[in-house]
Amino acid sequence: MLRSVFGEWKAGYVVDATPKWMNYQLEVSRFFGDLGMEALVDQTVRGVRTSHDIDVLVRGTYAGFEITWVVECKAWQSRISKEKVLALRQIVDDVGADRGFIMAESGYQSGALEAALLSNVTLTSIEELTERLHYDLAMTKLVKLEHRVDEARERYWELNKNVRIDAGLRPEVGAVGYSGDQITAGVDVILREVRLRGFPVIYDPVMASLGSFGNRYSPGLGGQGTTFNDPEKLFDFLDSELSELESKLDRAHRGGSAPQAPAGT
């Protein structure tokens, strides 16, 4: 009989024979993989006392730290019991993992929730963890922008004024236009505002640039700023701003000039 990897070939079509628990493991693995982590299914890990069969073993960098997470996947109809939480706590301790997760869409018994309190085991579902980790990872991506800002600022001031003007990195004296100095100041200030005050924040590169000369930073003065309420949208915006600046800087350092505007513009 011909067989597919997760099903059987019958009469010219495939009957999906993948067990529900296996589909859930693969879904959980894809979830962590989509977050940029290594997520390996059905792993045997040697601990201090014995070996353990792990549903999904997650490794990667999270919030700037190298992590190892042990994930148990429960595609059950009933709520998860306290005993499963206690068992995972022992596995996490034995293999030296940073954290354990029990993934279940059916919920948890009260005893399980109590057993997870003040421990390194998280009881969650894919939907809940999606919201929680995407926020955290978006904040991590924002922190990493700080290095790009510093590098862009350094490259900007390595160029003399005429080169910056010719490359479209700043306007002529007395004119109004694109300013790499304002971009770096604006990104730098809004990242600091996020660290200190959280969301919402207002991105206003003009006022941030004035603040760099000793003036008080007042974002959004005169309605010039853009308000952001979550880290993912802010990252996408700032990443675009820095990418444009980096492109101009690359061109300037190669000795190129700014692209000519179409006639009539």
Largest sheet: 5 strands, mixed
- The span between the termini is 70 Å
Neighbour order of strands in the largest sheet: 3-4-5-6-7
Helix and strand succession?
EEHEEEHEHEHHHEHEH
What is the rounded Rg?
Answer: 26 Å
Helix/strand-derived category reads alpha/beta
Helical region count?
8
Q: Could you list the spans in which at least 5 consecutive residues all have pLDDT below 50?
A: 1-15, 213-217, 260-265
Mean pLDDT: 84
Shape: elongated
What percentage of residues falls in helices of 4 or more residues?
A: 40-55%
Count of DSSP strands: 9
Strand content: 15-25%
Question: How would you characterize the overall build of this protein?
Answer:
The protein has 265 residues and is α/β, with parallel strands linked by helices. It has helices spanning 20-34, 82-95, 110-116, 126-158, 161-166, 180-197, 205-211, 231-253, and strands at residues 7-10, 13-16, 38-46, 51-62, 65-74, 99-104, 121-124, 201-203, 226-228. It has a five-stranded mixed β-sheet, with helices on both faces. It has a two-stranded antiparallel sheet with strand order 1-2. Strands 8-9 form a two-stranded antiparallel sheet. Helix 6 runs antiparallel to helix 8 (231-253). Residues 1-15, 213-217 and 260-265 have low confidence and may be disordered.
